[in-house]
UniProtKB/TrEMBL annotation:
Transmembrane feature ranges: 146-170
Name of protein: PREB protein
Alphabetic keyword roster: Endoplasmic reticulum, ER-Golgi transport, Membrane, Protein transport, Repeat, Transmembrane, Transmembrane helix, Transport, WD repeat
A single MF term (Gene Ontology): guanyl-nucleotide exchange factor activity
Native source organism of the sequence: Platysteira castanea
Length: 174
């Protein structure tokens, strides 16, 4: 093995590291941060005081991380579990103290046939393991969205309504 890249990712030890799609790397460090890297460039990061206001920075620390390509699963030293969108780090799911103590690892259920059976109608499933000797399954509900055809239909209706309103306001418009 040859070292191809070296850079300072965190102040202090790195608790966990995960490889993501598009050569991205996710790191969880003892400096209370979780970071997404592209080569040696910081893409985005999470800090407790920015994402969970009212919770003291020193009370929580990211302990475990996994990146499914779409989602980033995180576990903390206080037993909390979270799922974020991988590219923006927007939080979609959070359970405070899902475990009694340190989450030592998290893993997404693979999208194989047995994995899809566990998912049911959910968008993702994350397993968390902790020092409390428990393994828990966290299911991310499917987010609601409009079908593209309905969105296009609404846009067309908005354009027609705008033209009709302009015609009423200015009779010689068309």
């Amino acid at each position: 093995m040859k070292k191809t890249l070296e850079f300072k990712a965190h102040d202090g030890e790195i608790e966990d590291i995960a490889l993501g799609p598009d050569n991205k790397v996710v790191t969880a460090g003892r400096d209370f941060q979780c970071c997404v890297w592209q080569q040696d460039q910081l893409v985005t990061g999470l800090r407790w005081h920015e994402n969970l206001p009212g919770i003291p920075d020193k009370a929580y620390r990211y302990q475990a991380c996994r990146d499914s390509g779409t989602f980033l699963g995180l576990g903390t030293v206080t037993g909390s579990v979270a799922i974020h969108i991988a590219f923006s780090l927007q939080r979609l799911y959070y359970v405070k103290e899902a475990h009694g103590i340190v989450v030592t690892d998290v893993a997404f259920v693979p999208e194989s046939r047995p994995g899809r059976e566990l998912l049911g109608g959910h968008e993702a499933a994350l397993l968390s393991v902790a020092v409390d000797s428990r393994c828990k399954l966290h299911l991310l509900p499917t987010r609601r969205s409009l079908p593209v055809w309905l969105l296009l239909l609404l846009c067309a209706g908005l354009i027609v309504a705008t033209i009709l309103l302009l015609q009423l306001a200015f009779p010689g418009f068309l």
